[in-house]
Amino acid sequence: MNREEKNREIEALRADFSQANSALLVGFQGLTVEKDGQLRRELRKANLKYKVVKNTLAQRAAEGTPLEKVKDNFVGATAVALTKDDPVTMAKLLMRFAKENARFTFKAGIVEGRVIDVRDIEAIANLPTKEELISKLMFLINCQAQRLITALSGTARNLAFVIKQIGEKQGA
Question: If both were cysteines, with which of 13, 28, 51, 75 could 61 make a disulfide (CB 3.0 to 4.6 Å apart)?
Answer without folding.
Answer: 13
